[in-house]
Target: Histidine ammonia-lyase
Amino acid sequence: MHPIVVDPSGTTPADVLAVARHDARVELSTATRTAMAAARAAVEDLAARPEPVYGVSTGFGALAVRHISPELRARLQRNIVRSHAAGMGPRVEREVVRALMFLRLKTLASGHTGVRPEVAETMAAVLNVGITPLVHEYGSLGCSGDLAPLSHCALTLIGEGEAEGPDGRVRPAADLLAEHGITPLALREKEGLALLNGTDGMLGMLLMACADLAALFTAADITAALTLEALLGTDRVLAPELHAIRPHPGQAVSAANMARVLAGSGLTGHHQDDAPRVQDAYSVRCAPQVNGAGRDTLAHARQVAERELAAAVDNPVVVPAAGGRPARVESNGNFHGAPLGYVLDFLAIAVADLASITERRTDRLLDKNRSHGLPPFLAGDAGVDSGLMIAQYTQAALVSELKRLAVPSSVDSIPSSAMQEDHVSMGWSAARKLRTAVAGLTRVIAVELCAATRALELREGLAAQGLRPGPAARAVVDAVRAAGVGGAGEDRYLAPDLAAAEAFVRDGALVSAAETVAGPLG
Model:
């Protein structure tokens, strides 16, 4: 993998994923060092003046009224890291910590934070050797940025606290830095504050959720198509001209995906053979509309994430010299996480509703009164066997949890810092619950996959009438069986099947299997 070059010209979502999930190496460009050095010169000029400058020669938050003399400023910057590293609860996942560190490095490299190039070089070195600071679940209000999580990362940079080494063992940060030849930072004016004051945790989790959900929306299109096929539903509702007259782009993509998966099926269109149906149930017929609305929500979230990725979030910031005015340091409110918190909550709503419609299709497959000839619960010998009865219970429990997670965090605010920080975003909380929701949606889709593929196998009894699943469905069934997910037959220990199906969805194998026949899906 090529190294990711940090440059003021910009960072891409793919860069963040490469560093967070694939341990890509990080390098600083010459332009980065130049921009940082220029901003640092401005900070040092202001630090030498008698006038107080927030973050340079004052305290922080509600304590900003105190002017800090030069001999106390190194202690000030060290102390803000120590005091703000106040997280509690379970450890945050390694990929999240790497994402927030890399995103903070990206902002340091922008030339707007006023830290020395050595600070960015140390952070890059820690990432490159695989040292991961211990960050805890609770501590961020999403304003002023992700203070506690970033403080725990900064604590590692100054050689304090604990971190996880590349071998996965948690040890004192000072020992890990020494083993890898990294000198702990001695922070100077503004540098401690600049390491803490950003939306990097929220943004990193949003970028990863966007990547995961893009794949899951395609997976949901596939399982919806398989269920339509297993229920002998009609694919006429997927006709492009029907979706063109309601021109939501995500809806058109989902309908096209489903149509490609169903191409060549001998099962679709037989919804009037056993008990005539004028039209399929909403959970089948409206799948493109619901899946597509989620896609459009995702598109909006990605736009917000890309804007934030182009930002330099810090307070105060260094404003370069321009128009005859010298460089200056200005306070601002760009650290407020509202833009991210809103879309993180919006995505959680879309996830919950997609999971809800998915569970309704699964329940329809298992109910002999609505499944059009399939055995109760898709059991081998119903009564002796229970089939997938309890798999649907598990799916329903997941959906119920996802509905609770859809309650927005960003509408809450608890004032802090002696009412100086009197409105906060709770964006970190929104990001944490969205990660849980994405994992839950993966499991919900996996249960529908188990049910739909089993139902399609049971439909093979109609082969004498020439009613066979389509080629894409057959490819998915074969691939999921090869992955260890059992089919119809006598009851067996079911949890391993569900776990294998979850991995099949999460790792992209479902989409890959369908695309071997259907071609690239949107």
About this structure: The chain has two domains: 4-198, 205-315+332-412+425-518. The mean pLDDT is 94. The chain is about 55% helix and 5% strand. Strands lie at 4-6, 26-28, 88-91, 132-133, 136-138, 162-164, 170-172, 317-319, 328-330.
